[in-house]
Task: inverse folding
């Protein structure tokens, strides 16, 4: 097993969302998984943040709206993971798709803790203006400050 950042890489967690930036992170994860013959787990987190707005709208059909939103977000995650799974299959890589629901920071950290991963790979936007920095959740920074494993952020 090749040595990487002071250890071996056997399990890689790739956080993806199906966006262009997510696909760049997927490219890096596929390359490293192939190089190290590592197992790859794809994680998509369904963020409940959007459901907070259903308190304000659709008072009559609020529950129907929430259910519909849940289904749409889960379907989006399934599509993103299916695309990544197809890419892994064509590269001959072992892949496990996972969908979690909750605040992304918490769910990613929980998955890291439960999964025994050696490396986390995820996309990270370049925040150039003060306004972008102020308005951004900056998930990679939050994960970086708390995760106990090596991480690779792709721009």
Result:
């Amino acid at each position: 097993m090749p040595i990487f950042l002071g250890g071996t890489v056997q399990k890689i967690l790739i956080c993806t969302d199906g966006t262009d930036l997510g696909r760049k992170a997927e490219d890096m994860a596929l390359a490293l998984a192939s190089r190290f013959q590592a197992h790859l787990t794809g994680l998509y987190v369904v963020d409940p943040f959007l459901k907070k707005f259903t308190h304000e709208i659709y008072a009559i059909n609020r529950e129907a709206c929430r259910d519909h939103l849940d289904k749409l977000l889960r379907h989006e995650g399934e599509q993103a993971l299916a695309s990544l799974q197809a890419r892994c299959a064509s590269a001959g890589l072992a892949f496990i798709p996972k969908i979690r629901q909750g605040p992304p920071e918490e769910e990613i950290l929980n998955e890291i803790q439960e999964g025994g991963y050696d490396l986390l790979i995820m996309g990270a936007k370049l925040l150039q203006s003060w306004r972008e920095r102020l308005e951004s959740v900056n998930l990679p920074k939050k994960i970086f400050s708390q995760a106990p494993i090596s991480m690779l952020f792709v721009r």
Summary: Residues 35 and 67 are 42 Å apart (CA to CA). The chain is about 45% helix and 20% strand. The mean pLDDT is 83.
